[in-house]
Amino acid sequence: MSESLLDTVRERTPLVHCVTNLVATTFSANALLAVGASPAMVEDAEEAAELAAVAGALVVNTGTMSRPRAEGMHAAAGAARDAGTPWLLDPVGVGPLSLRTRVASELLGLGPTVVRGNASEILALAGHEGGGRGVDATASVEAAADAADELARTHGTVVAVSGVVDRVTDGATVHRVGGGHPLMGRVTAMGCALGAVTAAFLAVGDDVLAATLAAHAVVGATGAAAGAVARGPGSFVPAWLDELALFDGAGGADGAAAQALVDPA
Ligand SMILES: Nc1ncnc2c1ncn2[C@@H]1O[C@H](COP(=O)(O)OP(=O)(O)OP(=O)(O)O)[C@@H](O)[C@H]1O
Ligand SMILES: Cc1ncsc1CCO
Ligand SMILES: [Mg+2]
After folding, report:
1. What is the ipTM of this complex?
2. Which residues belong to the annotated binding site for ATP?
3. What is the mean pLDDT of residues 42-65?
4. Residues that bind substrate, according to the entry (predicted)?
5. Does residue 70 form part of some domain?
6. Residue-wise pLDDT tens digits, 59-75
7. Is residue 265 one of the residues assigned to a domain?
8. Do the domain assignments include residue 193?
9. DSSP states of 63-113 as a string?
């Protein structure tokens, strides 16, 4: 599953349009290039609507909110919906901050293909207590399980909650993805990069749940591999980009390792 979709990403180099935050921009673009996709960070409303209509997939990430960026998010998400472009909402920091919480709730109404966030963000987006105080989670993945399932069912979307073990649901079926490394929580915008990689898989896979799971498994496997060789957060970043780029495809040992992270016994 994961290995063949990764091969397809590399064959097709899908254009992934990101309306993302100031912190995540370069890292997400590098993660997309490493995995084999083609990134474009475009946020002006006029341009974002043009690009979202022709891109392979779109990411909308609320990490550094501003009113002009919010306009770009609405324009991009609306154009993606109209054109049938798959799109992923990453509601960074939603809960404690008002503008992004309003905007994310409006964006949810535009029908994201996938919603991906940490536990506090997913709790807040679903209107539950337990939201964080900034962009990092203060709740556990399992504490957000009901909120994630409810969001998925109400909005007909796949919801992926990241943490030590990621949880992916379409509201009916739940999968967990292990792997990763504690250093991933000490590098900024790691979740944003996971969202970008997930969008690359959405661009080439018709099965949303399978594509989301495959992307999480590849990030889990490459994160574990990078964590094993990194000395700390600084060397983790280049090690992870290298692991993503060098990850073998169909039939390889890396692909099998990623597969083994999904729903381990
Ligand atoms: N302690 C950990 N052990 C294993 N994997 C982890 C750990 N912490 C984070 N990860 C992994 O790191 C990735 C990002 O998850 P995280 O929950 O940290 O995202 P986030 O809070 O949205 O990040 P950001 O908002 O900074 O981009 C996921 O693939 C997750 O599985
Ligand atoms: C640190 C930070 N602040 C706003 S967005 C962001 C990146 C992690 O989401
Ligand atoms: Mg996040």
Report:
1. 0.98
2. 116, 162
3. 98
4. 41, 189
5. yes
6. 999 999 999 999 999 99
7. no
8. yes
9. SS--HHHHHHHHHHHHHHHHHT--EEEE-TTBTTBHHHHHHHHHHHTT--S
